[in-house]
Amino acid sequence: MKKVVFNYLVTAAFAVSAVLFTGWSCSALKKLVSEEPEDVLAQVTSMTTAKADNVFINLTGSGEATIDWGDGNVVSKSLDDEPHSYQDYTHNYASTSSRTITITGKNITFLVCPENQLTSLDVSKNTTLKILACRSNQLIHLDVSKNTALESLFCRDNQLTHLDLSENTALIFLYCHGNQLASLDVSKNTALIELNCSNNLLTTSALNALFETLHSFDVGEQKRVIIGGNPGTNDCDRSIAENKGWIVEN
Q1: How do the domains of the chain map onto residue ranges?
Q2: Which residues fall within 8 angstroms of residue 25, CB to CB, at 6 or more apart?
């Protein structure tokens, strides 16, 4: 199961360490974690699924995390924030029915929940989250406004029509391709180096507007934006992004 998560993250075409640490060295990451207050209140994440078998969740963090599967089954495990240390949770339901899964933990920094047929995902109380991977679900809404520590967001292949990233100033990697976005504003995401917004509903004017919001800072990495499969892909003005140091790809 760990291999599945590993392969999932490296689809960004960057080194795994770059995704997991998102720009932090091991020592810097440990220092960051050590500075977290010890009395952080328990944080609750909830999601709704109608899937019956092989529901999969992966977590990294500190302390203990408890998952209530919503059918009377509850499981708890100790988390570890060391690199490449994940806790996998899988569950099979007796039948297909809509259920709410609740995750409780003091300091969850990494949440992976792909291909679970999720119709809702509430991470508003999980303020320590740095990596969220919720690809290939059925989400029409995703609120990450409270996740101000978020550095990597993988929400591709859902049904999102809007994505507000104005509070995610630490965001480095954004993969929102395969949704129904008609506009996207990344003007507050001044640490961003990788954006994949392909296969959405971005017209020529919407892509040009997106390019205008891309930052022009030198972040020490090659900056890349992927736009293929949008209505405006062929006619947009790529020079707007390129003049800011971005590579524009289909």
Answers
A1: 2-249
A2: none
Considering the segment(s) 2-249 as one domain, its CATH architecture is Alpha-Beta Horseshoe (3.80)
Mean per-residue pLDDT of the chain: 85
Tell me the pLDDT tens digit for each residue of 56-85.
Answer: 999 999 889 999 999 999 999 899 776 567
Q: How many whole angstroms separate alpha carbon 159 and alpha carbon 172?
A: 22
Amino acid at 27: S
Residue 4 CA to residue 114 CA, distance in Å, equals 10
Instruction: Say if strands 173-175 and 87-91 run parallel, antiparallel, or are unpaired.
Output: unpaired
Residue in 68, 91, 67, 90 with CA at minimum distance from that of residue 77: 67
- Kindly state the average pLDDT of the residues 6-32: 34
* Entry pTM: 0.84
